[in-house]
Amino acid sequence: MKKDYIPIVLCGLVGFAVGGYIGLNALIPKSSGLHDEFIMVFAICSIGLFIGSLAGFTAVQIYKGDA
Amino acid sequence: MVSDKFKKSLRINSVLLITDLGAGLILYNYGKSKGKKVSFSIPPGMELWSMLLVAGATSVLTGAALTRVEKRLKVEIFDETDQAFLDPDEWEGLFTSFKGLKRQIGTGSNYGTPEGITNFLRGNPKETGRPVSKKKSVGGD
Q: Which of B34, B62, B73 shows the shortest C-beta gap to A50?
């Protein structure tokens, strides 16, 4: 069971990073930095983490079923 | 009192909440440094509460979604009465006996053939005067 967390957390972190990249480059204007719009970027990152962890969990369930 | 499923969901949620908050703190400190030397500090009151609120909401959403995904993926194809639930050693025994039977048929030996098949082979329909097919039709009516 403990090993199941690793892909979930890893995929979640990848989603967080992707969300951060999208939030910084596409949604937040360049004039205002990360410090000014931190909560906005963090919310997007959290959604990325949510999607990533879901993907990781689904992968774990599928591969666990195959094994 | 609390089910294992709930415990498992709670555990995953806690891990994700901690991960989210930790990554958020790193992001905050990275943004605050603006390319200079990074120093670790906790966001001020309002930002911290907003951060906790966002992380909590995401965690609840993630928990709900994980439960839904788990339910969708848990598909039982066979029930307990089906033979697909034979134990691995039972399957092995079944295959071995089939292999043995196949070999005996190939060599013409009837040693170890199931009793029903042996009886059928020994029986002489001409002597008894009751062919197998007719016997079946009489019983059916």
A: B62
